[in-house]
Amino acid sequence: MIETQFTPDAAGAIPGPDWLARRRVAAAEQVAAAPMPSAEEEVWRYTPIGQLDLSRYQLAHDGGGTSTASVPEHSAMAETSNGRLGSVELPAEVADQGVEVRPLGEGDAELAASVDVDMFALMNAAFSVEPLLVRVPPGVSVEGPIVVRHWLDADGGAVFPRLIVDAGADSSVEVLELYGSADVSAFVSPVIEIRVAAAARVGYLAVQDLGPKVWHIGSQVSHIGAQAHLRSSSAALGGEYARTRLDTHLSGRGATGDLISLYFGDGEQTLDFRTFQDHAAPDTTSTLLFKGAVDDASRSVYTGLIRVRPDARGTNAYQTNRNIKLSEGAWAESVPNLEIENNEVHCSHASAVGPINSDQLFYLESRGVPTETAERLIVAGFFDEVLDQFPVLEAVPAVRDRLQSKIEGLGHRGVDGETGS
Amino acid sequence: MSEQRSDPAMSELVVEDLHVQVGGQMVLNGVNLRVASGEVHAVMGPNGSGKSTLAYAIMGRPGYEVTAGSITLNGVDLVDLSPWERAHAGLFSTQQYPTEVPGVGLENMLEEAVEAAGGDRSAVEAQVAAEAELVDFDPDLLYRSLNVDLSGGEMKRSEAVQLGVLRPRIAILDELDSGLDVDALAAVSHRIEQATHEDNLGVLAITHFSRLLTVLHADVVHILIDGAIAETGGPELAAQLEDTGYDPWIDTRAESPVEIHLGGDPWP
Question: Which of A47, A237, A245, A305 is the most exposed place for a label (fewest CB within 10 A)?
Fold first, then answer.
């Protein structure tokens, strides 16, 4: 039981269609009855979840400023500020294809299906002020990414962004989601649902660059249909404690999911990832590549589970997590797991946590590259493999630049507080 | 490096009484060597004699601890310098199996190296292109990560490109010929020979086989046994090795180590 203003009454007071109001209240009642998650539970192990005090946050209602994060050329764009949907830019030629970018309305009750993987996803169901729908009709290919840019500047604010990407059969779309904030103390708990219908192709990239006092606890739930392909990626750069849980369900025969992420922790950040690759149909393929670096006194957690259900013969599932520990005080945990209930499968997992490779360092140094420069080159190179596989190519240069600014801080931070950027 | 380039006439690498320990084991037990500009020296020895350790110790690889003796280049003591400082002093080394460095390109690395040494990074791109042509290194491969997905020959051509751009005073070549096809060996060794003539490069080539000595035209051959130079001579020494192998030196040392010093040097 949580003593906060996140009550069923508060949930019911949020304007919206009736079906959504009912769902909000029901979810808020579940939240009210639920115990707070604890680091004793496996799925919250290694996290500072015990330090979360929800009573410090208020549901943010009022729109604030707008993000200045750079946006690549795009087909459509929606902006939120403090959880409020601001402008939606949907050019006529895109709208004429039947593409929708809009808040959920009266007719969307069928989208109420539960994807509530934990208490925070339930909170999102209860308190998401304006859930956003991106829908691409069957057979339509959208040229250029659809961008959703979030901004948060309400000190003490709690926001629950919700995005539903609904890609119709044989459609094709890329979605870029950007999270940024002012230097405020805030709580962000997003939920992203991605529905990839049969033979559809979806690319998704989330760039999380929140301020250093923001807590981010998000989940992404994807369902990939027969012969469909999802390439889902993220760059986790900001936040004080930033967690993403990824539930990827390969639901249709021949579905493929590629999960690619990078993260870079510095200062006292904790970056946390929980992934579930759920093979529920035959001949499905999932690949996962998560690479991270932790500097200063930062921490990272990766735990992943590949699950192959009894019917999922012919599964190919791979999971790779590699971490570079850049300072004595940094710490990375990597826990891959397999749960296989069918014999006709190819599965593998690999994980590593270690310092910068000393052979690589020696090679560059022996050519005359000074140690710190060599370290930065190696760390940047380590992430290249991830950046090379990101979808939404237009957005990659900005991610690379932002990552580089964190890498430039290597060896400088902690001396005089300078970040090198 | 530009500093050394302005005075290419005379450089000398001097290794004196070098003792090196690796992982708690003594591997080099008093090595003495002098390599001057324009000279090509070969170090030959059986497996485990300490050849690669000598190369790494001179370049300053972490884990190769100098417990006694000295390494100097033009009188500058290198032992307490980091590998990149040794490179700036004019040293270069090739590895038998060059390390893969994913995500780091040849040109990028050389730009950083040249800039750190006070050179002009904007000149590197053209130099790389010119050097690649000299050793017939496929320009497409220049954009790959260092040593990633390269054949043995391509890796050594890449290292020859690096040597050409960095223009060291002394190059230590560790098993340059290993994994090399005939064409690559010819291209790479020709480039090194050219550097010894035109740039007055001094070479310390570590090898198992006399083939490399022939193509590099070694002036001096050292035989390394159990972490010390057992004999130093001219190219004829390599020819003798072809016939007898290392047994004469190993046996001599085992039975009567003193004899080496008394009568063991036919090429004084």
Answer: A305
A296 and A413 in contact (C-beta within 8 Å)?
Answer: yes
- C-alpha to C-alpha distance for B142 and B164, rounded to whole angstroms: 14
Boundaries of domain holding B173: 2-102+168-263
Question: pLDDT for A290-328, tens place per residue?
Answer: 999 999 999 999 999 999 999 999 999 999 999 999 999
Q: Are the beta carbons of B76 and A356 closer than 8 angstroms? A: no
Q: Is B96 on the interface with A (CB under 8 A)?
A: no
Residue B146, CA distances (Å) to A320, A387, B2, B186 in order: 22, 18, 25, 22
Closest CB from B61, B102, B162 relative to A367:
B162
Asked if pLDDT for residue A385 goes beyond 60, the answer is yes
Residue B78 touches partner A, C-beta closer than 8 Å: no
- Read off φ and ψ for residue A49, nearest 5 degrees: -60, -30
Q: How far is CA B237 from CA A95, B15, B232, in A?
A: 83, 21, 8
Q: Three-state SS for B173? A: strand
Q: In angstroms, what separates the C-alpha of A376 from chain B's closest C-alpha?
A: 10
Domain CATH for B15? 3.40.50.300
Count of C-beta atoms within a 10 Å radius of residue A68: 9
Are B109 and A380 within 8 A, CB to CB?
no
* A269: Cβ contacts below 8 Å, ≥ 6 apart: A212, A238, A239, A240, A241, A242, A298, A299
H or E stretch at B83: helix B83-89
Rounded to 5°, the CA angle B246-B64-A355 comes to: 130
For residue B14, the one-letter residue type is: V
Query: Which residue spans within chain B are E strands per DSSP?
Result: 12-22, 25-36, 40-44, 64-73, 76-77, 91-94, 101-105, 145-146, 170-174, 202-207, 220-225, 228-233
Helix ranges restricted to H, B90-146: 106-116, 124-134
* Strands of A84-89's sheet in order across: A84-89, A76-81, A146-152, A172-181, A201-209, A229-236, A256-265, A285-294, A315-325, A345-354
Over range A51-61, report the average pLDDT.
91
Residue ranges covered by each domain of chain A = 59-355
Q: Which of B58, B81, B84, B150 to mutate to test the interface with A (most CBs of A within 10 A)?
A: B84
What's the gap in Å between the CA of B87 and the closest CA on chain A?
Answer: 5
- Report which DSSP code applies to A327: S
Other CB atoms within 10 A of residue A270 CB: 23
A16 phi and psi angles, rounded to 5 deg: 160, 175
Question: What is the Cα–Cα distance from B268 to B265, expressed in whole angstroms?
Answer: 6
Tell whether the model's pLDDT for residue A421 goes beyond 70. Answer: no
User: In this structure, is residue B220 part of a structural domain?
Assistant: yes
- Higher pLDDT, residue B140 or B18: B18
Q: How confident is the model over A134-179, as pLDDT tens digits?
A: 999 999 999 999 999 999 999 999 999 999 999 999 999 999 999 9
pLDDT one-digit tens code per residue, A214-224? 999 999 999 99
Please check whether residue B148 is in contact with residue B101, taking contact to mean a CB–CB distance below 8 angstroms. yes
Q: What is the ipTM score, two decimals? A: 0.90
